Amino acid sequence: MVDAQIVHAVCRAVADEHGDIDELIDAELRRLAPLATALERRRIHAEATARLTGLSELEALVADPTIDEILVNDHAIWVDRNGELTRAGSLTTTSTEQVIERILAPIGRRVDRTSPIIDARLPSGARVCAVVPPISMNGPTLSIRRFASTARRLDEFTDPVGRALCVELVQAGCNVVVSGATSSGKTSLLAAMIAEVDDAERIIVLEDTSELPCEAPHLVRMEARPSSAEGLPAVPLEQLVRTALRLRPDRLVVGEVRGDEVLALTQALNTGHDGSFSTCHANGPLDALLRLESLVLAAAPQWPLPAVRQQLARSIDVIVHVARRGSQRRIVSIAEAQVPDDESRRPSLRELATITSADRLELVGRLQRRRRT
Fold first, then answer.
1. Helices and strands in the chain: count of H runs, count of E runs
2. For the chain, what is the mean pLDDT?
3. Are 151 and 191 in contact (CB under 8 A)?
């Protein structure tokens, strides 16, 4: 038998047995592979243990640094490497439900018919999303998304002109929204821009699920908390934004805006908290403005639309849009949000892709003057 066949046979034999898992595996190994070397026995033992008590076939994939995301549809396993989705086998010795339970147990979370959707963060920093029936109609589905432990450099996203502009916007204290599609590199680009902040500044990072690879000498991180089955109340991102304003931030970072927190953030950006950052799912910079507009209207339906547009344009200075091109993530647009001079005007942007050095100085000065008026 090859190793994979032996592992499978050991797991099938031991799965329903009671007793010490290591002793049971060793006994089956002596029976099934009496001629195996000590190295082979250790390797098969580790793989069988992972399948029976850990993440089964996912164990090696989670440890593989070349994989960005692991997807499980019922029992089928897919992986995303450098933007390419490929099949990576199936769960054979355990069910997807058991794997989900093993992932969530150490962090005190659970998913079942009464709570069929879960978003969580593993101790390694990976983000987990699981959905089970009856919501997931074709069986349980699982996504494990890995994040880089260190921030990428800004010049990995753009050319020297784009990098110079991004650095000047950060150092001038402009409010920046990074937009893009799912897995386009928004979080990585945001971390790269935050790396340009002066070490003396106090940065407060707020996220639904902590994933930003951000390091700074004066960094405070907070993570939202959902309500629990044991009666623990939720601590939403909106509450964290209000709390952060009382903690004297020099820079406020909201990992992603997608709910009522947009109202607290917009008000914060328009009341002196310059140099703040956030991200937004959108197909382009104008779409990002329109999405933020709709989020504000949903959170505060009593606000008139012209007032919302004025507030957003005066709160957000620049939208940086990033897109994925194969295995690369690149900045495709840097655009200034224009303040409407007519109540009937839709949001508009001024593209800064070909801006010169002199234009950069004029832009930064204008944005700073605009926030003072």
1. 12, 14
2. 83
3. yes
Radius of gyration of the chain (CA): 25
Exposed e or buried b per residue across 229-242, where buried means at least 16 C-beta atoms within 10 angstroms of its C-beta: eeeeeeebbbbbbe
Residue 84: φ, ψ to 5°:
-110, 125
Residue 257, CA distances (Å) to 206, 253, 295, 311 in order = 10, 10, 9, 16
- Yes or no: say if 319 and 177 are a contact pair by the CB < 8 Å rule: yes
Over residues 74-93, the mean pLDDT reads: 85
What CATH class has 57-145?
alpha beta
Residues 150-154, mean pLDDT to the nearest whole number: 81
Task: Bin 50: left if φ > 0, else alpha if -120 < ψ < 50, else beta.
Answer: alpha
The CA distance from 36 to 43, in Å, is 10
Amino acid at 176: V
Residue type, 222: M
**Which residues have C-beta within 8 Å of that of residue 110, sequence separation ≥ 6?**
101, 104, 118, 229
Q: What is the mean pLDDT of residues 336-347?
A: 75
Please give the share of the chain, as a percent, with pLDDT higher than 90: 26
- Letter string b/e over residues 212-223, b meaning 16 or more CB atoms within 10 A of that residue's CB: bbbebeebeebb
The pTM score is 0.74
Give the residue-averaged pLDDT of 149-156: 81
CATH class of the domain whose range is 154-363:
alpha beta
Read off the DSSP letter of residue 16. T
What is the residue extent of each domain of the chain?
A: 1-53, 57-145, 154-363
Quickly list H helices, 252-319.
261-269, 285-299, 305-315
Look at residues 287, 265, 262 and name the one whose alpha carbon lies nearest to residue 276: 265
Q: Which amino acid is at 339?
A: V
Q: Which pLDDT does position 1 carry in this prediction?
A: 43
pLDDT average, residue stretch 43-53: 71
Cα 223 from chain centroid?
A: 12
CA dist 150 and 35 (Å) reads: 45
pLDDT tens-digit readout, 177-225:
999 998 888 999 999 999 999 999 999 999 988 888 888 889 999 988 8
**Residue 78 near residue 38, CB atoms below 8 Å:** no
